[in-house]
Amino acid sequence: MRGSGDLLTGFAWLAGTKVAGGFRGGWEAGEHLQVSVIGGRLTVRCSSASNPNGVVLIQDLDLAAGPGQVEMPATFKLGFAAGTGGATAAHRIRNLSVARPVAMPLEMNGPLTAKAGHRISYTVGVQNHGPNDAPDAVVRGEVPVQLVDVEVTCRGENGAVCGPGTATGGELHQPLSLPKGSKAVITLRGTVDPYYEGDFTTTSKITSATRANTAPQQSGQVTPTAEPALITVGQKIAGQWDQSWPEDAKGWLVSYNLTLAANEHRVTAWEIAFDVPERTRVNPAQTQWYRVIKDGLEGTVVLGSPSGGSHTIDPGTPLPVDVQLLYPSQSEAGDGRLRGLYAVEVANP
Fold first, then answer.
1. If you write DSSP's letter for every residue of 307-319 in order, what string do you get?
2. Is 142 helix (H, G, I), strand (E, B) or coil?
3. Is 77 exposed, middle or buried (CB count within 10 Å of its CB: 0-12, 13-18, 19+)?
């Protein structure tokens, strides 16, 4: 970095640093330089596709403190020049963006281990430390194929506003309006593929189309290890119809065939759980041999093995469990698929 000057005079050396590996990385590496001038102080960061948070090369350099510096001009101008001497080289610059700066740090948390077939959740927290508002911030990320039935919720604080979030096609997309001093917490929930074992990675990064993010931590990722579940559960819709009787059990009825399978040893006590829309419940007109621990009115159904040790699950011998759900209406039943469905072994009730 050099200071102010005029033709052949001035341009004093202000600061310098060696860039590891230079700038001779491949074009595909996505080498990116961010130059920020905030309050007369300059920071330079170098990042790439493989290191999205980057490395700070020069930090908080006081531009007015160098020898011979003139007063900061009212107009800021940009220009590019390159010289190679007797050598030949290509200097290519693309994706140039000039934007007002804002510090938006991101922190991502989640489990390090997970049982296959179980529901897990991640939290992504973002803040705006200023100095400007960020009305067009967005958190993007990659959702692995090993995570299914993914849902996104968002909560804004201190004036932050969450737009409609999605997690479809393997991509997380959560728009945010982040005034200075605000923050938002994004929750990402999904079910681990019941037949998957191994690692899977979920990522997130916050950006803005009109604001340069100067925060040191702009992205995050979590890589849990999926362990085989002791019990897996499958679902199949056996039928659905409008139930008009009895009077206290009217609604849209969907009948399910659930199948429990033990993977390692005999399971003598178990529970099945899944999420349902509000005011949905296990059909009160149906007689069950299993226990109904939660009937669904609070948004969750939990079914348990009967007392006494009957209806055990042996490896290689699946156990069928038929359940009928009474939805308030056909539209609220949607496609009828049970969300967040999983089964666990429990201590004998």
1. TTS-S-BBTTB-E
2. strand
3. exposed
Q: How many CB atoms neighbour CB 186 within 10 A? A: 25
pLDDT of residue 26: 63
> Do 212 and 238 lie in a common domain?
no
Calpha distance 125→106 (Å, rounded): 6
Q: Please say which residue of 67, 96, 125 terminates a domain.
A: 96
Q: Residue written as tokens 């009828």?
A: 336
Residues 134 and 173 grouped into a single domain: yes
Among the listed residues 320, 321, 323, the one whose alpha carbon sits nearest the alpha carbon of residue 285: 323
Same structural domain, 195 and 284: no
* Number of structural domains found in the chain: 3
Statement to judge: residues 16 and 66 lie in one domain: yes
- State whether 135 and 63 are in the same domain: no
CB atoms within 10 A of CB 178: 29
Name the maximum alpha-carbon separation found in the chain: 95
* Residue ranges of the chain whose pLDDT lies below 70: 23-26, 348-349
Token output for 215: 């925060």
- Rounded to the nearest angstrom, the gap between the alpha carbon of residue 282 and the centroid of all alpha carbons in its chain is 32
What pLDDT is recorded for position 12? 92
**Two structure tokens written together for 147:** 């995570």
Tokens of 233: 């559960």
Does residue 300 sit in the same domain as residue 189?
no
pLDDT tens per residue, range 92-142? 778 888 888 999 999 999 999 998 888 899 999 999 999 999 999 999 999
What span, in angstroms and rounded, lies between the C-alpha atoms of 204 and 196? 22
Note whether 223 and 130 are same-domain residues.
Answer: yes
Residue 143: what pLDDT?
A: 97
Which two structure tokens, joined as six digits, stand for 338? 């049970």
The reported pTM is: 0.69
**Residues of the domain holding 169:** 101-227
First to last CA, the chain: 71
pLDDT, position 24: 65
Question: Residues 241, 222: one domain?
Answer: no
